[in-house]
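ugh ok so i messed up the first submission bc i forgot one of the chains. this is the corrected input, ALL of the components this time, i swear. 722 residues overall. if the numbers dont match what u have on ur side tell me asap before i send this to the collaborators (the ones from the other lab, u know who)
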Amino acid sequence: MSGLRFELETPVPLVDLDILDRNLARMAEYAAEHGLGLRPHVKTHKAPRVAREQARLGAVGLSCATPREAEVMASCHHDLLVAHPPVGLKAERLMRLPREVDLMVALDSAESIEMLVAAARRHDRSVRVLVELDVGAHRVGVPTAEQAVALARLVKARPPLVYAGVTFYPGHIRQRVEEQPRHIDRLRRDLTATLDTLRGAGLAADIVSGGSTPTAWQTHQIEGLTEIRPGTYVYNDRYTVAIGSCAREECALTVLGTVVSTAVPGQVVIDAGSKALGREPRVEEGQGFGELLDRPEVTVKAMNEEHGILDLSRTAWRPAVGDQVRILPNHACIVTHLNDVVCGLRGAEVVERYEVTARGR
Amino acid sequence: MSGLRFELETPVPLVDLDILDRNLARMAEYAAEHGLGLRPHVKTHKAPRVAREQARLGAVGLSCATPREAEVMASCHHDLLVAHPPVGLKAERLMRLPREVDLMVALDSAESIEMLVAAARRHDRSVRVLVELDVGAHRVGVPTAEQAVALARLVKARPPLVYAGVTFYPGHIRQRVEEQPRHIDRLRRDLTATLDTLRGAGLAADIVSGGSTPTAWQTHQIEGLTEIRPGTYVYNDRYTVAIGSCAREECALTVLGTVVSTAVPGQVVIDAGSKALGREPRVEEGQGFGELLDRPEVTVKAMNEEHGILDLSRTAWRPAVGDQVRILPNHACIVTHLNDVVCGLRGAEVVERYEVTARGR
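and heres the new structure output, hopefully the right one now
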């Protein structure tokens, strides 16, 4: 670690492109093997550089959370899902996406259907709609099959909206991978019942879109699923390692920081703080906001905006002012959102820089 | 609240310009009244719009944390303090600031002095140096007067560096205002001793720069102090209210969000999540990540990246999809860093938009 030296101003996110390539390929293979469409969520990278690779590897489409993400990703894939209810001015803004974009949105209320249909009619634009189901995450989505039927029926009655199917996010399944099967089993039963009810009402779902990175490798067990939407898998992070959804060697994103102070005994201060790493919790308390890539026993125990404090209590290593460190963050998606540019590595060489073009609004 | 309606896409930060004006004036008056120089930290706003006002109101200079902040603020004030050790490529980058900038940096190590002097000599540029003291925050700064003397001496021996004095950040004083006096009292005694030691060594500090927003209104009690560096006071936030450093009516910054889902019973979901509000803790646990400006009993109890979940357990209010809400965030500085543009209000009218120009790297 003490030999580490990049000619880069810090803090700056680094992406190991070899690992990124492997992560992209592995998920594409998993989806293909199980006959699932892969519609990666771009929130993790927000970068056309990565989205184009996902498209090249056969993604059926891309998932976006914001109008900005959709606008940027329109140049990478023509099939875009906006997986966030398009309420207020967002619906109008989405209608101004290039005409070649085949837009699909997820929603869970009559109000958002009416806003969307008004915008779609003003722009004479057909929009596919997925009815969002709450399968246990209790965030968005209708909790009952009857409500799903009612919304699907409403969509069908509101051209130019097109009822395309259902979507869900199993965000409640965040346990370690080996503890997931009983949750997945329950999800499968509930989903099957809802899909049956829809079918019985003449509202069979062509698209059943679900999944997350924590559950990614289990999603083939969910009958009826037609496509998956993992995001974090491209970079992975300390959280995905902690739950066993990836190996530590599959983490592509780190933040390069520099030791700026060793003045206070028993600790060192780096220039990566909450404005570079994000104040994201790990699965377990007390494990800090990140750990060194090559020294996992050294964690970022505290942060201010531009300061990270390394905990040296479990190491004999004593860095000097000016030494660089690579921090594996708790949550990759936040690091992306905090930074405008990512440096791509092959081995220890910075071979490219790419923009986080879709960050911001 | 239900009548609230801005023609804005959300989430977006709003700044009440009348409150901002009053906050700026009040701190300028406090500093003038006590004969203290005011060198506001720009990290909170990162906006030339606000920095120019601070300059107009008599700020002796501006404090910056990053080279980017210094570059942007060079157009607002000629006297800039970079209050973060300029280690690595940062020292070199600072030397490329416009020549009219009278640069000052804070540091706490011989290594950073040597890096800075090398850069300063390459660019034939005089740089004032403040030796950073640790007065109890245990982040950066030398803990003893003897170490301060040694660093000050080293600076004096390294032209074109100029020894200008000392600096400290009382980040450990984060208690409620009424519990601060004994901490301030200790700080005053320690600081006086250090300043005496420096003076005895022929290293009297012309500039003694310290303070924070939590301690802002107490800093006149610290003898020897020549200037203060509050940042958050321009906007204030839920934290500064909680410790009694400002009144709730003095909070200028809110985040405008829109209700996007009411599907899950007992809660509503807004489109402002961790990528708009930041996952910043409040003083006390369990109080969420923000509260509604007009309904403080409604808090943001949970977040995902683009979702905030409002806790409706202490209110009979039931908003509908499409309703807008204004959220008072826990920590204003993070909100600024997460957003590129701020909307300025007079009353309920958006009268301007200004850029957070100095965010990013």
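quick check: Chain B touches chain A through 67 residues (CB under 8 Å). that seems consistent at least. The two ends of chain B are 37 Å apart (CA to CA).
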